[in-house]
């Protein structure tokens, strides 16, 4: 069964009970942050050790999941930065 998960930013993707994610036309990715898989928790920990150095790899990892192309990290960067700011608030 697939359910649509959308954060308050409208940043959403589809998730099934197995934890896989599929892209929607809205801003992809924040549902990852709302209910992060283990790999994202680890990646966020690495990011927090040196945000300037690890933002690009974090965006690439998110893009690899939600856009199925890690080279498209720039396309999710703005939304990733918003989610990071929201988490820090």
Summarize the structure.
This protein has 89 residues and is α+β, with helices and mostly antiparallel strands. It has helices at residues 30-34, 38-49, 51-66, 73-88; strands spanning 2-6, 12-16, 21-23. A 3-stranded antiparallel β-sheet has the order 1-2-3.
Shape: globular
Biggest sheet: strand arrangement? 1-2-3
What is the first-to-last residue Cα distance?
33 Å
The level of helicity is 55-70%
Q: Provide the structure class.
A: alpha+beta
Biggest β-sheet strands, sense, barrel? 3 strands, antiparallel
Element-level helix/strand string: EEEHHHH
Count of helix runs: 4
Mean of the pLDDT scores?
75
Which descriptors would you attach to this protein?
89 residues; 3-stranded antiparallel β-sheet; 4 helices; alpha+beta
Describe the structure.
The chain is of the alpha+beta class. It has one domain. The chain contains four helices and three strands. α2 packs antiparallel against α3 and α3 crosses α4 (73-88). The model is unreliable at 1-25 (pLDDT under 50).
